[in-house]
User: Fold this.
Amino acid sequence: MSRIYELMAAELPDKVRSQEVSAEEHLHSILERIDRVDEKIHAYVTIAREEAIARAREIDKKARRGEKLGLLAGVVVAVKDNICTKGIRTTCSSRMLENFVPPYDATVIERLKTSDAIIIGKTNMDEFAMGSTTETSYFGATRNPWDLDKVPGGSSGGSAAAVIAEEATAALGSDTGGSIRCPASYCSDVGLKPTYGLVSRYGLISYANSLEQIGPITRTVRDCALLLSVISGHDSRDSTSVKIPREDYLKYLISDVKGLRIGLPREFFGEGVEEDAKEPVLEAVGKLEEFGASCCEISIPAMKYALPAYYIIAMSEASSNLARYDGLRYGYRDENDEGNFDEVFSRNRRIGFGAEVRRRIILGTYALSAGYFEQYYLKALKIRTLIRRDFERAFKDVDVIIGPTMPLLPFNIGERIDDPLKLYMCDILTVPANLTGYPALSVPSGFRKGLPVGMQIIGKPFDEGTLLRVAYTFEQNTKYHKYRPPL
Amino acid sequence: MGGSRRIPVEEIRHIAELAHIELTKEEEIVFTEQFNRILEYFSMIDEADTENVPLTYHVLDLVNVYREDEVHESMKRDEPLRNASKKEGRFFKSPRIV
Assistant:
């Protein structure tokens, strides 16, 4: 077997256990793949070669001794660079954290390690997860493996590109307003934003803490379920982590949607959503109907306010969460210490943060400032309630809500980056799941003009099982998950 | 409401100061222009009827999450200092305060 880097996360552990494939040879196959293609794609910020090889050897040693191996034995995982990894620098793709080496592991990293996964490296992202294209990275843009002139989506663009380019078996991303689902859609991956509170955020560098979740990015629904089973579950170090029993999500992988009720919100197929983004999703829904699901049109009237409300809340939270970066205990500290504390602090932040991060911090500060607090921030929080009510009402009659993940096909690098507002508009279909906290998954549903189109499935809180079942049914009866970019 | 009011560059300068972010002269101009466009777009939420609608700060109905106050092993002293670019002995070195 010459191309063992193609193995799925669900296939590899048994082969490592039985010593049919060693974790080390598999890892080397992936490292060679990275050496061959990452120059073109730039999915990685840091590759932890030595650490990964040492881990692989330990796992192989365990296998030889016949010791029990974890669920992800030998699986090579790429981690978005805003998730803390002990001893491996974690930059948020920002100059501010260019040399930051965390002294601890995020909870999700601890869980991956306990399951005998191998952390291969840290993936590129929009700076501090603020963007939908992975162009705002201090280290330069990531390219879409399907067309190197196009954006891979963002902000977890490095993770999504690495997975479909087979530079990793699976990856972790984080999703604040679509940052897992958007690049999953643009790169033809499966990407899941879990219900808020299902996965611990301990060790995730905060951008907008009431909106974001860590989730898996994989090539198949089975791998998604497997990773979710490992990373989910209560963690006392994250006070917003919910106390529910841990689940084995693999049990939901049943190819059957008989009796499933699908809601298609008119707002997800209306103005501002391109035909090329809609058609494959409607065809996919037709397929699910063939297998026994039923469909009805629904409406989320408050959707028209979702995007501004989302940005006001996200920016406000960002202005508070990013106030900690003063360059004193860690982070960028300019040589020039001239002036008082405020002046030094403000200079470190001008040089350490890129334009989009500064824009969002300043706008968030504005929305929280006296005189505007009520008009922007409190109003946005009330709209959040309206959106939640619309979704609660819709879910009385349907089991899942389906629409496109993105309103347009992947576009050219550089095409939208100079117009922040135009860029924000790309998030219109993904932000509702963050405002409501509901789980949402993007699954490959076809191609237009040679570019991938993702179908977004939104579910009831903590009903990841149904999302996985629907995605699995579609996947098992189509071929889209088998296509790979020509690299 | 505030939708049509243009925010002058002085106000952006003041907010940036509150946010502890230095701006160059050119940035002040570009940001002011961009902020006015963005805030004009945001002001569309003015029209939403939110009379008597409660606030959603958080999607989970969690209040006061407690845990046992147990002592865990803490990091060694030099560990947290490792990422500081300026330090002296076992202290972080701050710029002058006033």
Observations:
- Residues 1-48 of chain B form a domain with the Histone, subunit A fold (CATH 1.10.20).
- Chain B touches chain A through 52 residues (CB under 8 Å).
